[in-house]
Every structure is written in structure tokens, then in C-alpha cells.
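As agreed, record copied across for absentees:
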Amino acid sequence: MKAEYTDVRQHILDQGKAIITRKGFAGVGLNEILTAADVPKGSFYHYFKSKELFGEALLADYVQQYRVDMDTLLSRPGKTAAEALMTYWASWFADSSETSCGCRCLVVKLSSEVADMSEPMRTALRDGTSRIIERLTRTIEQGMADGSLAPVSEPARMAQTLYQLWLGAALLTKLRRDASAMQSAWTSTLDLLQLPPATHP
């Protein structure tokens, strides 16, 4: 029974995420989520007592999976911390493309929308991005330890600066429909980390 509960709940979250990434939270009605997931309204309310609580669960699920994927990129054997970090930023080019439904797109899509709409969803996004920055901080500290990154007086501030830089670049990419902001973020990241010039993906 527990496995069935987890599967149905996750299926609803997965279907909802695919739609909301494209249309935003307010632009998607409950019936559209129910139709995509092919579940009755009663089943939806069994797992989520309201659309807002569904949104909160959706963001928590997104952050959890994002952190797993992020850790995979940042922990690849044989790579220095600097190489792993740039591999992570390189992945943003694909995840922010017009055809992508990647997790970063969900942050860009929902951050400004839900901040004024739902306090629980705003908090879920805030806490989620804070944990992402914490993981980046650890990677920068590892880079300083393995000698692949120049010393940084405040790794946490550097991690926050870089994440904000790329999040802004992802937003501008959606507005411009081209990769110029990403290219600029790539060059600025190399400069901030004092790394040699490298070709972006």
C-alpha cells in the first residue's frame, strides 16, 4: 500500500511539474493536472489538501531531485572541484534552453509568481535555493583544498554571487530567446573564480 501511495503521489507531482514549468502555477487549473495525471479529484485531495499544498509539495520534490542531480555533477570521480563546478554551470545552458523543462526553469518560472501568492511556496523555494548555495559553497571550499581554485575569503558569499548570476542569466535567456546572458555568466564565472578562459558549451 505504501509503494502504491508513493507511486500515485509522485505521478501527480511529475505530471503537474511538466505542465507548470511551461505555464506557471496560476495558469494551470486543477482539472488540467487531473487530466494529465489521469486521476480523479478525490485521489488528488487524498494526497494534497489544496492546490497550494500541492505546489509546496511540488517544489519540495523538485529541490530534492535537483540536489541529487547536482551532487552527481559535483562529485564525479577524476575531476577537480573547479572542473566539476564548471561542468555544473555548463549544464545550465541545456536546462535553460527554450525546449527544456529542467529544474532551474521551474525556479525561474515560479520565483516571482509564488513569492506574492503563497507564503509556504515562497518559503519552499527560499529554503531550497539556500541548500543549493550551501552545496556550491562546499564545492568552492573543496576547490581551495585541492588547489584547483584560488583562495576565496568568503566561499559562501562567492557561492551566492555565482548562483544569483546564473539565475539572473536564466531569466534573461527566457526573455531574449538566446544564449547571450548565459555566455556572459560563463565568462564572469571564470573571472570571479580566477580560472583560465574556456569555451562555453
Notes: The longest helix spans residues 119-146.
